[in-house]
Amino acid sequence: MSEPAQPHILHADLDAFYASVEQRDDPQLRDRPVIVGAGVVLSASYQARACGVYTPMGVNKALQLCPDAVIVKPHFTAYSDASKQVFEIFEHTTPLVEGLSIDEAFLDVHGMELLSGSSTDIAAKLKREVRETVGLPITVGVARTKHLAKVASGVAKPDGLLVVPLGGELTFLHPLPVEHLWGVGPVTARKLHNHGIDRVGQIAALEEDALVAILGKAAAHHLHALANNRDPRPVHVGRRRRSIGSQHATGLSRLPSAPDELDVTIVGLVDRVTRRVRAARRVGRTVVLRMRFGDYTRATRSHTLAMATNETQTILSAIRALVTSTMPLIRREGLTMVGITVSNLENDDAFQLALPFGRRPPRAVDAIVDQVREKFGASALTRASQLGRDDGMSVPLLPEPLPD
Ligand SMILES: [Mg+2]
After folding, report:
1. What does the pLDDT look like over 227-262, one tens digit per residue?
2. Is 395 helix (H, G, I), strand (E, B) or coil?
3. pTM value?
4. Which residues surround ligand 1, an ion (CB under 5 A)?
């Protein structure tokens, strides 16, 4: 791929995750020092951190530092539910998500400018979605490398958004305390301070050999590279990613439940999702239709295909069959949210970038469409029924089969 024209790696990290979930779920805890733990502090709200509470620390010691703190027992089901919701938002943002832990991931948005705007726009939208859908604060760092994106989110916490511009990496990094480098814990920091090294720029200015004498070979090599902003690691899509989905929600108003009108929304969602599945070089076997009705109840319908696929037409047909079978319910209650997901994902070993000549199988149509849009933008190809629509989604498309 071409060199990115903007910093393209996001590090997204929920703020004081467990404590924030507790504050979300119990209004009496908001704006108060909250400690989640039993014996040991597992998470502390920023109000508790202000008194010097950190993780891990004994709860008794934490209470000495922060006598007003409220101690809450952990609710792991709530954390895992919140994590799932947040990762769904990550995965709707880009196919390239590398989960680091329950509340933290790298997202690579390279090449998404045409579809989704600048990486700054994408990061701002991600923050908004997590706040509105899950009710939690999240900090996002944006930079050219993973390390710098993580450093940026660390500097921006809590509830921050910090973009390190291309070319501004060393200006950002060098004045920071050495503790901000990935891998510098209290022990390494003390060794560095003992040699008068307090800032990242001082590490960068040293010969690597001089650093080896202080920290040993492996740590010196690692930190010297980071201090000079050498971090070529790409974002790795982990095993965590088992599905790709997208949804369309209206606030209190309803989606049209007339079959033709609803179909336009469905086509747009299927188009968006299958494009992401193909971009991630994946195929999936199960299609899932999720709905929320006017009375706030929800329903899920799924269908497992005979073979894994990423073809727009095949997945659309399966989703349309699910919609048809649910139509009586949709008519009665009215839809306020519809989402589709392709799951049971596996790698697409047969993924072809080159266009086949001669007879074109259906997937070649998808590949052509994806390539045209990659080159000329999402609106370069539009189905007639989508023209003139503005429903807040990227312009969807279902190609008519090309003539042989
Ligand atoms: Mg976190």
Report:
1. 999 876 777 765 556 788 887 776 546 776 677 778
2. coil
3. 0.60
4. 13-14, 17, 103
